[in-house]
Design a protein that fits this description.
It holds the Pfam family ADH_Fe_C. This is Iron-containing alcohol dehydrogenase. By secondary structure, the protein is an alpha/beta fold. It folds into two domains: about 5-180, Rossmann fold; about 180-224, no CATH class. About 40% of the residues lie in helices and about 20% in strands. It is built from seven helices and eight strands, in the order E-H-E-H-H-E-H-E-H-E-E-E-E-H-H. The protein has helices at about 20-25, 35-40, 40-50, 70-80, 95-105, 180-200, 205-224; strands at about 5-10, 30, 55-60, 85-90, 130-135, 145-150, 155-160, 170. The protein has a six-stranded parallel sheet with strand order 1-8-5-4-2-3, sandwiched between helices. A two-stranded antiparallel ribbon has the order 6-7. It is globular. The model has no long low-confidence stretch (mean pLDDT about 95).
Length: about 220
Amino acid sequence: MLLTPGKILYGRQSFYNIGKEARKQGKKAFIISDKVMEGLGYVAECVQRLQEENVKCVIYLGVETEPTDVYVREALEMFQKENCDFVISLGGGSCIDTAKAVAVLATNNGYIGDFRGGGKIASHKPVPHIAIPTTAGTGSEATDATVITNTENDVKMMMKQPAFMPNVAIVDPMLTLSAPKSVTAATGVDALSHAIEAYISRKAHPMTDMLALSAMKLRCAVNS
């Protein structure tokens, strides 16, 4: 089964649609981002767009490294305390993966690790999640999986089921221009690797083959 977000907005300045998309999800947003995104002005821009549509927001900027269960717990507690309606993730894969976990746990009790390996299936619909990536590579904004590190044993836990899929993905290539050259190169190789892996996978699908080949061709075109 091939899953994708219910809606994908792609293109230059698509980020500016965040206010209108947020208004469709609720009256109070919970933004999960990091200090880098705040410093670049992306968080402020997001807040402004929400305010223009009369959508209130609460901001969590605690994501600093690879996503951990500590970030998830802190963000979830703030989400619940502030009675937010939905989640917006703004940043790299760490912010998006953290937001995926919060969206699911907000309506399904337990520890995020309970969902590892399909051990627990979300019985309640997660709160809406709008994912806004600022780097290439992970593609987390368009997958139904999240990887969270258990800080007690330093083990990365992978959770995969439809509940973790964002409702909306806003992919604005202009947001990637602020990344350092080294990060741009590294995430480009990461994206190429994902495309190759998807194409040669035994679980490949005609649609994923089409996307994988397109991604590889685009990457080669950029290098040339």
